[in-house]
Known about the structure:
Elements: E1 4-9, H1 18-31, E2 35-40, H2 46-54, E3 59-64, H3 68-77, E4 80-83, H4 93-100, E5 105-108, H5 113-117, E6 125-126, H6 131-147, H7 151-162, H8 165-185
Parallel strand pairs: 1-2, 1-4, 2-3, 4-5, 5-6
Helix pairs in contact: 1-6
Amino acid sequence: PDETVALTVRRLVPRMGLDQLIRAYALLAARRxxxxxxxxxxxxxxxxxxxxxxxxxxxxDFCGFLAPEALLAHYQAADLxxxxxxxxxxxxxxxxxxxxxxxxxxxxNCGGPPELLAPLDARLLLADDDPHTIADSVLSSGLTxxxxxxxxxxxxxxxxxxxxxxxxxxxxxxxxxxxxxxxxREGRS
Length: 189
């Protein structure tokens, strides 16, 4: 209760922007000591990221791979979810998972996340993955949005209204039929 917890769930590889996120939390440590970052996931950069975090006064915990039940509890307990992708983020299922749990997401403005987040609230988009940008955005728009009355409910409603599984399945089926029809017109099997 005396901490503000941000969560990120990522494969610990370079394109995920976690090195920049650790640098951002080093900047945040002096400005907001009650902030804690929880990094869930595994990958080849784990030891390097842990070393970098240990060299700062930032409060960063690495919890490794989480089973589905534990992941759900982490999403629900977090005040904010961070997605600092350094390069293209294709869709960002973690964005929808977090929002479905009522946890706002602050994400870089690349790939799929802008499409998912802008209709909910444009303040959830980071201009870039620079550590100063991330740190400033966490303190300003990220925590502001997370603290707004009713915003967690808005997150859940946004996902339920716009991304139900039935609609997703229908859209995949429609696209598959289009692809099959096009291949048939082109004389390919």
